[in-house]
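[SOLVED] Need 3D model of a two-part complex

Original post:
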Amino acid sequence: MSRAPNSSNAPQDLIRAAGDLLVLSVIADGPLYGYAITKHVAARSNGSIRLTPGALYPLLHDMEQQGLLLSSWETIQAPDNDDEPGGRGRKRKWYRLSAKGRKRLSQRIAAHRAYHAMIESFLPETGADGSIAG
Amino acid sequence: MLLRKKQSSKPATDSTAEMIHSELNAAGSINAWLNVLSRLLHLPESRRQAIQEELHEHLTERVRDLLLSGSSETEAVRAAIEELGETAQLARKFEAANRPRSRRILMNLTVAAITSGIVALGVVTLSPSTPSSTAHYAPWQKAEQPSPELANAKFSIDADQSLYQALEAMQSQTKLGLVVNWGEIEESGNNVNDPLGLALKDAPLATALDLLADGGRKGGLPLAWRVKDKTIEFGMKHVLDRREASLASYDISEVLGALSGNYGREYAEAVADINQLLTQMVEPESWRENGGDTATINVVGGKMFIQAPPRMHEQVDWILQQLKAGGEVKAAADDMQVPYLKDIPVIDPQHGRAEQLPEVHRTALQAQLNQLQVELIAAENEFHFAKLQIPVNSPEFTASEQRLTNARAQLDDLKKRLGRDPTAAR
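Solution:
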């Protein structure tokens, strides 16, 4: 079974630190619910990044408390629930960026790029195989 | 898309029927685990229930995907729950994340004050514990009369003085009391020790305070001031606002009736119009709906409930009076675009367009919807594995993605016709 090549060798702790940046970025494209966020992140990272739900949901709640995300509930009725009064629809919680969330995202992007550029300026040239010359 | 039982209108395929059967059994295990988690959560009932609902949806979808990928029911449920981590630890994380923001800031401030001693509290007199009805607000309406102690007081500072020095000088010059939570101001990103570059000579106190609130904001959150009982309180705008926020109900049945009668707006549209008008015209950044944390708005039936500082209530009241008074403003409300409210997924399908469809069409569309949902599950699953197994640039991947897009588009189109899901277009 062949897997798509890993585009990222980023260590897990760096990815963990950028969890909020990843989540804000995928939600910036449009409203999403929790499970869809995990799928989007996996898809966009070519399967390299898996947001565990145990980290994702508390993070979403935290960002909602900070006012970065707004949420609303969608009731998903079971297909023929209408003729069964006892039938209970599932509820799906959708998240979308607030104005404050958009601002935070742009700040995080700028900070991330500045950090990346700063570290990059220290790094020596590497060969095609990643080895350091000299 | 989880099918709780067999569809009556169209038979499911054999594999789908098996999946439905497995999901029904899995549901019991999921509920049992959720009950355990709920008992570990030290949160209000409403929050516990919301967490349960959200994780129920997650686990249901995850188990469905795992079943489709060939896992047994037992394996699927176990794997899905294990992915959430250790239950007690998860409960702690949810508790921390759901703690009210203001309480967390307060806790951080307390810790900072105790451990490092860097929080300088320039408290000269203690603040009364409850806001008094004579509170004087930083002017939203310029016509507001200044209180006598403000009207007569004058204030002078040099340009090289910082916010800290300026307020100390103000206290000694005016002999008014001064309450400042410096820790809170610094915590919110404002530098209180930089020179303000603000030179004042015998300036009226209200003007000076406005300038200090404006000029003292060095890159942080907005500052504000209040004067009451011969005491100046200087602090974070959102903190002062939140403390003064009061709940009021407004009867909007007349306005709703006018929008409906004169402009043919349905109830939900009229509510959205009013909601948008208020949250865009009255201090937009303060509304929770816009990412703020000072004001909230909710409409139930013909009543609108608003929690907000008094000056916002005044503006809300004025706008509603205009809507009742008629003519121009009503038309303006009618023409409003609702860019962000349209993004909200349907909460109450009762107000959707579903009720307007003839029953026979509705039944036929519902049957079609059921079938499309089954097809979407298959397409989603196929694409899920395509992402893991097929190179992104290959034609197979593109074809799989296209099938999923088509399935979603068909389903979304149908949902829109059923009026169940106005956000389905995304």
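Edit: Chain B has four domains: 14-98, 107-242, 245-342, 351-418.
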